[in-house]
Structure formats: structure tokens, C-alpha cells
Amino acid sequence: SSLTAQFLLLLSALRSGSVCKKESIFHFNFRTQRNPEFHLVDKNMSWSDAQKYCRENFLDLATVTNHGENQQVQEKAQKEMAWIGLHRDPNIYWSDGSKHSFTNWASGMNPFGGLSVICAALDGSGRWKMLSCEGPLPFVCYMAFKNIHTP
Ligand SMILES: *[C@@H]1O[C@H](CO)[C@@H](O)[C@H](O)[C@H]1NC(C)=O
């Protein structure tokens, strides 16, 4: 709908800082209100370049909060390794600020061990691996939609 389109424009404008940030007026909870749509970007980039690309062209790198979303991201990535928005530096956080609760680590993967700065990628089977952030790898971005009820 055109309301959704307007909302998306506003979101990307806020994200790029091109409009005055009125957080008190325009405030919502990504985790409960977002309805993400994932997009594979088939370009090999480092995690931080991928993050920049997603923020400029979509909303952010993919945040995965449940199995359903993980499946959607895997369907986009197919058998390719692909960056998702999870990062450890040194705490683990999602690029978009979502709370880190759902996890899907590959067996034997210890997200707290090893390198000091690491980034997460989906492996070919949908499990998460921590890698050196240089990659380069393709990546999955997301766009968020908010359900706006029109009268
Ligand atoms: C990305 O790199 C991989 C591994 O080097 C290569 O097989 C693939 O073709 C590259 N993809 C693109 C879009 O350049």
C-alpha cells in the first residue's frame, strides 16, 4: 500500500539521517512490529561493507529472531555462505540493535572463543558460523514492514 511505501521511505530516511530524528514521536519496537523481508546480495564484501550496503539499500543486515526467519534467510542464501547481522566486538550484538536471544550455531561453534572481532555467517545448511569479518562473502539484508491499519 502507499502507506507502507511512505513508512519505508521514512524508515530509510531516518536510517540515513536525512531527516531530523524525532525518536520520541517515531518510536517502535523492531522485534515485535517488524515483518522482515530478506534479500540476498550476491556481491562479495567484508561484513562492515555489507552492513553499509544493507543500510543504504535496505534497512540493515539480516536479523534472525526465530526459526522461521532463519529458514527464510537460508532460502535466500541457498547453499552459499552469507553474512547475517550478528557481530562480536567483544559483546555479541545484532547490527540493527535487536536483542540477541535466538541462536542457531553450527555444532562445535563457540561464539565466545577465538578471534576478538568476529562476524556471523549462515553456512550452506542454515547454521551460523563465526568468521573473520574480512570475508569476503555475499550477504542477506532485510527490509522491515509495519502493519498499518487503514480505516
Ligand atoms: C565470490 O567469491 C567466490 C569465492 O571466491 C566466487 O566463487 C564467487 O563467484 C564470487 N561471487 C561474486 C558475485 O563475485
TrEMBL record:
Residues 38-142 form the C-type lectin domain. This is C-type lectin domain-containing protein. SMART domains: CLECT. Residues 1-20 form the signal peptide. Keywords: Signal. It holds the Pfam family Lectin_C. It comes from Amphilophus citrinellus.
